[in-house]
Amino acid sequence: MTAWYQNLQTKVMPEREIHFDFSQFVNENITRSWALTLWLIILTYLTFQVTFQQFSESPIVTAFVVVLWLVTVAITVFNEITRHHNSWTFWLKNNLYSSITNVELSLLLVLLIIAAVRGFFGYAITRASFTPDPEAAAANLAQFEQPGANWGAVLDNMRNLMVFRYPHDETWRIWATVIYVGILLIVSAVIFSQERFRGTWTRRILTIIWVLTPLITFGLLLGVGRPSGVMNPDVVWGGLLLTLIIAVFAIVASFPLGVLLALGRRSKIPGVPAWLTYGVAILLTAYFLYTATLPQLEKDTDFWRQIISFWPLIILFIAIAFQRTFNGNVVAAFSTLYIEVIRGVPLITVLFMSIILFPILLPKGTEVLSTWRVMVAAAMFAAAYLAENVRGGLQAIPKGQYEAADALGLKTFRKYWLIILPQAIRVVIPAIVGQFTGLFKDTTLIAIVGLIELLGVANLISAQPDWLGVRREPYIFLMVIYFVGSWIMVSSSRRMERNLGVGER
Amino acid sequence: MTEMTEMTENVMNNEVDLLPAEDVIICNNVHKWYGDFEALRGISLTVKKGEVIVILGPSGSGKSTFIRCINRLEEHQEGTIVVNGTLLNYDVRNIAEIRREVGMVFQQFNLFPHLTVMENVTLAPIHVRKWSRDHAEEAAMKWLTRVGIPEQAEKYPGQLSGGQQQRVAIARALTMEPEIMLFDEPTSALDPEMISEVLDVMRDLAKSGYTILAVTHEMGFARTVADRIIFMDYGKIVEENTPNEFFNNPRHERTKLFLSQILAH
């Protein structure tokens, strides 16, 4: 008795047989429903249109693409109906040519992508002008029927885009900051990634330097030690410099604040006892009813005004809400209120409040510079969102971790500092980095409240007499800067996740 | 409160010296409620120094709740618990004092996944006992050797087997040099072949004079190692007996039913 697989082995592949039923194919792929038929007609029409149009634009490339498409489709179809795929027709069948729609879409998209790339290169390079001299640039662009980008506007304004009005003879301070931070980053990348530096003094000193870095860089950039005194940041900071200062400050300052808010919102500290809350609330209500409501009732006869004069009752409602929702826990109540109020308000509102409302609240004669106000506003805004992210991380930590820390006798601070927060923050690194890239890009809103950061400079360029109306080029440049900045943040977070073994456990 | 013994009264009056030295845990009429549900209904138990006590009972009988009350992972609402001469009340210093002297091992190990085995074990001695790192690491190595896994010190908990993780958890508790060890179903989450390696360590500890309170379903361990067996049901101690008497000659109907069910399968 032969084994069953011997029979299989003897079964040699015959000549290629064609398995194809035309009417079945049409039925399944074209006339299955009227919507499908209609869609295919539209798609075919579009594909033909685009192909012909591209033929007239650039015949050689289009012809090449179309021929390549025809050949591969033909081979794939032939292999499909003879059920004899090789590896690449199998891939094509699965990924590009799995249905009539996809066959057509493949061609359509390739042609459109080629057209877009060609269009962009034509605009950005072939038909563009790169001279910072406005007159030469105008002459350059005049040769073309469709003039391309006028990069001269960006090149001519590069210093404005980077640092705006920073004094020329203090430029070394910028370079010093860049070099200082650069060296620090490289050194820490080495030291913090290597296991053998764990818990050594090298690492501790480096941590201390990092903690001092904000002070050092602020001092450098503000011009501490100049003979004529410290510079005014509202005047000298601008462009990318201001964008980065605000973004970095908001990120760094919002982190501890956000963590504290998250812990505060989850805090279970014994609250104010109910009798105290209600007692104080009743006393206050009674006092205001007596001093404010009674005289008002006697004075006013209008019904609605009389109703409004009962406003002290709101105190009672607030007291009830506070006791019911938070059990008298002041910390949790404050954190929750802060987070929800900030999250319920757009960033631009917070910025406007810091610029317009805040100075009114200050006592006469005191002034806080706009730059500081905006920095603090951005940090406070970010902290509310960060707090919710961190809270998510805290909720992901199993109860057993808290219990194990408790059972070992760790007190609250050490329990959170050594056990809970390292794990909780590790879990939410992706979310936090996502939020921080958002914050970095949201700094553009500062242009609206009057500080000249990157977007502000870009807007100014189109108003310069030399480059009147040149808008697109600075914006494209901004796009590149923001993309590179976000990409650096995202990729370094990915590396950090890998080093910390997030998601591995 | 009427049943309060003279000893606990003494503690409450801070006359700790009158306490017999060998009674390390004194529980008197301990009650605990979860909302309306009464989980513990008056537990009274005195544990002498060096005693090994195994707590048995069906699930939901309050065994775990009871031993978690001893180091204040759960809060009891009525009755007194005195551990090592310290009254367990709302005073944070008392709780800290007790937790320093009581080690605990959990069903789910609860190792800190972001720290290495060595860091797990030395964390509490360094930050609670204020030992130097060298001293703590030396002690940690001693205990890791005793539980048989010195070579795993630099690994992370996630890289170890369940049995190894539980032995790290035991070493972590022991490095704090506690007088009392609480085991909350230490083998229930383990594969069958890993149970024995953990039980061997526990047996070793019992022999070397630790006071042990263990909630477990390992009848063999209970029979051979325990000095006393406590059988709990519905939040009460139903029977308290030596292992021999308990398994061979149970007094209560509930105990007989329990034993017949677990020994039958």
What report would you give on this structure?
The complex is a heterodimer of chains A (505) and B (265). With 505 residues, chain A is mainly α. Chain A has helices spanning 4-10, 22-29, 34-57, 59-81, 87-95, 100-126, 134-142, 152-156, 158-163, 171-193, 201-222, 233-236, 239-266, 274-299, 303-308, 313-326, 330-343, 347-361, 370-396, 399-407, 412-427, 429-442, 454-461, 472-500. The model of chain A has no long low-confidence stretch (mean pLDDT 89). Helices cover 40% and strands 24% of the residues of chain B. Chain B has helices spanning 6-12, 63-70, 92-101, 117-127, 133-146, 162-175, 192-207, 219-225, 243-248, 253-264, and strands at 23-34, 37-48, 52-56, 78-83, 86-87, 102-105, 180-184, 211-215, 228-233, 236-241. In chain B, the strands form 2 sheets. A 6-stranded mixed β-sheet of chain B has the order 6-7-8-3-9-10, sandwiched between helices. In chain B, helix 6 (162-175) runs parallel beside helix 7. Chain B starts with 5 loop residues before the first helix and ends with a helix. The chains are: A mainly alpha (505), B alpha/beta (265). The interface between A and B is medium-sized, with 22 and 26 residues.
